[in-house]
Amino acid sequence: MTTVAAYAAPAAKAPLERTTIERRAVREFDVLIDIKFAGICHSDIHQAREGWGEAIFPMVPGHEIAGVVSEVGPGVTRFAVGDRVGVGCMVDSCRECENCEAGLEQYCTQGATMTYNGVGRDGEPTYGGYSEKVVVDENYVVRIPDGLKLDEAAPLLCAGITLYSPLRHWNAGPGKKVAILGMGGLGHMGVKIAHALGAEVTVLSQSLRKKDDGLRLGADHYYATSDPKTFEELKGTFDLIVSTVSAPLDFGAFLSLLKSDGALVNVGAPEDPISLNLFSVIAGRKTLAGSSIGGIRETQEMLDFCAEHGLGAEIELIGADQINEAYERVLASDVRYRFVIDTATI
């Protein structure tokens, strides 16, 4: 066991504070990672404040982890000391079910082991990236290409793959009209990736406040959803809408923006249930869907794609003593576009 410094929420809705946690000894197939940077995801706030249900405390959030390998177990073949690596939202799965065998570990039928606020298959609670080090099985670690800066790569481990996976699955590319709903930590990566895939990209945001950024990052068009004319003008326009919004939406209104056979895919997860008039999907054979992160293989593919196209996240680097302030700023949409913790300050 190794004792490391970390920032944890001691209880639901409590401010995060500096503490120490125990990391397991390196096993045969484990990689010990010196964490350099950890992104702050809106999911961290949902879970630290029990917005998605009962959680495990003390909680060390963080599933956007970028660092350097400092030790490997004797059976490790994929990584060596000094490698630049990342860890995303999961650190294990059953490895035997149909989904795991297909490279869809995120949909493990027995439940993937989450990087934090989870319980490992050894029965121990998992702790995330707001810490100095982490020990992870090599099969759930990915390589960060040299073309990406570690701090800008950290958010790709959640925000990047969360957008890349549905954009790939629903075939965003040349000849497709894609809308990204929400221009935040997830949405800004959706704009970059959809543009790099060759799609015609539209941002749908509550206001035009971030229009210049959206166009700079690759959007072809930018509309305010607070303007009723937007829904009149764009009716029947899109092949795919990816919603990154975690607040309640009028899904009927957004489904009306799809072409026949179009899909509205949710990656943002509102805390409350939604209601839907099913005629919104029946008319036009439309799909209302959801998507999680990607599997390990697809996450590596995403990192390689981002390196090839120069797609790091737009970040604001902070010290660990600014985490609680950063949470409040995320809730106020006051970040462009992802807070990243310099873990040397922990």
Rg calculated over all Cα atoms = 20 Å
Distance between the termini: 19 Å
Count the strands?
A: 17
Seen as an oligomer or otherwise, the chain set is: single chain
Uncertain segments = none
Helix content: 10-25%
Spatial shape = globular
Determine the strand fraction and express it as a percent band: 25-35%
Overall mean pLDDT stands at 96
Main sheet attributes: strand count, strand direction, barrel closure: 7 strands, mixed
Order of helices and strands: EEEHEEEHEEEHHEHEHEHEHEHEHEHE
- From the helix content, strand content and strand pairing, which structural class follows? alpha/beta
Work out the helix count: 11
Write up what this structure looks like:
- The protein has 346 residues and is of the alpha/beta class.
- Helices cover 24% and strands 26% of the residues.
- The protein contains eleven helices and 17 strands.
- The strands form four sheets. Strands 3, 4, 5, 8, 9, 16 and 17 form a seven-stranded mixed β-sheet that branches. It has a six-stranded parallel β-sheet with strand order 12-11-10-13-14-15, covered by helices on one side.
- Strand 10 (177-181), helix 5 (185-197) and strand 11 (200-205) form a beta-alpha-beta unit.
- Helix 4 crosses helix 5 (185-197) and helix 4 (159-169) crosses helix 10.
- The two termini are 19 Å apart.
SSE inventory with pairings:
Layout (H helix, E strand, L loop, with lengths): L1 E7 L8 E7 L6 E10 L2 H7 L16 E8 L11 E4 L2 E3 L5 H4 L11 E2 L18 E5 L4 E2 L6 H4 L5 H11 L7 E5 L3 H13 L2 E6 L5 H7 L3 E4 L3 H6 L4 E6 L7 H5 L2 E9 L12 H4 L4 E4 L5 H14 L5 E4 L4 H9 L6 E5 L4
Helix pairs in contact: 4-5, 4-10
